[in-house]
């Protein structure tokens, strides 16, 4: 008999992520490894025999790494650097296979499309860019914002490209043409954009003031809003079943919410400094979090 998953999480594993803060973490598609980006580069961890083991350190960027993404097949890692470059890494060898250029400021976020053929990037130069992964050719440059971009997301199987900025707007574009389809104003600048699990066409957006919105990516319909507080929201994640939202921020806590009702269901004392990034494992049984205290922590989801 299958156990129903709960909203209770217990701290199970942790590791120090070298020196400095953690800006973003991502799971490998197989759920047995994680990549961390931060102040001193990229660290690759594996979960082996119930322990977190450091597998490799990638340091080709000159300065902090702001964002990372793993290709759908798990072979490539894309990294966004404060040095204005994007690097593609062979995860098996831990080596750079291609460097992408074009941004005129720090690259903040990267995201693969669903088949891994295209890579979108968001930068502090106010631009969105799309590259061909196989050739490195820049296919499109999009200027829809008036300030630095801080969030990026692909929806509808990669057909829509959403961006969030310090100008407090979410902009949704046709990914192929770059055409702006709609724009939505938040009260504060954007920190998180997520496509809801199952790619049901809904976009989750979260701003610095703790407001979380959930609505159709394409036309903004089916609106739902939550007030998540934190005294400054920095990150959010949704379980693969789409039922639980986790948020983190300046109060050093992870808060858990029911997506359907917006009800608060749990709060975890998570880090000694702000919670800057988090992600659920592909099977939803683990929540990984990283903070300004340079700690990686893994929380195990309890079963009823």
Which structural class matches the secondary elements?
mainly beta
CATH homologous superfamily classification: YVTN repeat-like/Quinoprotein amine dehydrogenase
Would you identify the CATH architecture?
7 Propeller
Radius of gyration in whole Å, from Cα?
Answer: 18 Å
Text of the CATH class: Mainly Beta
CATH topology-level fold name: Methylamine Dehydrogenase, Chain H
Percent helix: under 10%
Q: What's the arrangement of strands in the largest beta sheet? A: 1-28-27-26
Overall morphology? globular
Strand content is over 45%
Can you write the helix and strand succession as a string?
A: EEEEEEEEEEEEEEEEEEEEEEEEEEEE
Terminus-to-terminus distance = 12 Å
Mean pLDDT: 93
Count of the domains: 1
Please report the number of helical segments.
0
Main beta sheet: 4 strands, antiparallel
Low-confidence stretches: none
Number of strands: 28
Task: Describe what is shown at a glance.
With 304 residues, the chain is an all-beta fold.
Overview of the molecule:
By secondary structure, the protein is an all-beta fold. It has no helices and 28 strands. Strand 24 (253-258) and strand 25 (264-269) form a beta hairpin. The chain is globular and about 45 Å long. Strands 1-28-27-26 form a 4-stranded antiparallel sheet, with no helix packed on it. The chain has a 4-stranded antiparallel sheet with strand order 2-3-4-5, with no helix packed on it. The termini are close together. The relative contact order is 0.15.
Give the SSE layout:
Layout: E1 5-16, E2 22-27, E3 33-38, E4 41-48, E5 51-58, E6 65-70, E7 76-81, E8 86-90, E9 95-100, E10 107-112, E11 118-123, E12 128-132, E13 138-142, E14 149-155, E15 160-165, E16 169-174, E17 180-185, E18 190-195, E19 202-207, E20 211-216, E21 224-227, E22 233-238, E23 244-249, E24 253-258, E25 264-269, E26 275-280, E27 286-291, E28 295-303
Antiparallel strand pairs: 1-28, 2-3, 3-4, 4-5, 6-7, 7-8, 8-9, 10-11, 11-12, 12-13, 14-15, 15-16, 16-17, 18-19, 19-20, 20-21, 22-23, 23-24, 24-25, 26-27, 27-28
